[in-house]
Amino acid sequence: MALLLSACGYHLRGAIQLPENMKSIYVEGGSGALLEQFKQVMKASSAQLSNSRTGAGIVIKIFNEDFNRRVLSLSSRGKSNEFELNYRLDYEFANAKDVTLMERQSVEIKRDYYNDQQYIIAKDNEETGIRNEMYQQAVQTIVNRARVVLESGAK
After folding, report:
1. Residue 12, Cβ neighbours under 10 Å: how many?
2. In the predicted model, what is the mean pLDDT of residues 20-30?
3. CA distance 21 to 29
4. What is the rounded distance in angstroms from the CA atom of residue 52 to the CA atom of residue 58?
5. What percent of the chain is predicted at pLDDT more than 90?
């Protein structure tokens, strides 16, 4: 069964094909939620998040991580109807010896959602889900960029 699944190109949701030198990644900085998403992506991709930069194939340095929520529209009662979530961070790549592989880059992700005042608890859960998706998208963007940087440097 495993051979059939691997032959057809099946892979876990969120899994990313990583080069051998990315099987161990060290992340420096970042919030707990971002690090949790890194752990999930690495686990799905048969890689690991290293506890130290020693032996890591790449070091991802996170700077200026910021999550903002902004009201987009108000109801006739003055309650917020729609929100915009904005997540931004800067990152750069280095090797285990702290030699910069790629200068600082930014990732910015925006989402908006409708806030129905009758279902306020459900909307709070929806915002949490949207935030997790934004963290996941940021991690996938960073990991894909790291893969490209490492593959282009190896050639």
Report:
1. 10
2. 86
3. 21
4. 11
5. 41
Residues 6+ apart with CB under 8 A from 74: 80, 81
Boundaries of every domain in the chain: 17-154
Radius of gyration of the chain (CA): 19
For residue 69, give the 3-state DSSP assignment: strand
pTM of the predicted structure, to 2 decimals: 0.80
Which residue, 86, 102, 89, is CA-closest to 30? 89
Per the structure block, which two tokens stand in for 17? 């094909």
CB 68 within 8 A of CB 111: no
What is the CATH code of the structural domain delimited by 17-154? 3.30.160.150
pLDDT > 70 fraction of the chain, expressed in percent and rounded? 79
CB 108 within 8 A of CB 117: no
Q: What's the pLDDT score for residue 23?
A: 81
47-94 pLDDT per residue, tens = 888 898 888 889 999 999 999 999 888 777 777 778 899 999 999 999
The C-alpha angle with vertex 137 and arms to 136 and 138, in degrees rounded to 5, equals 90
DSSP H or E segment with residue 82 = strand 80-94
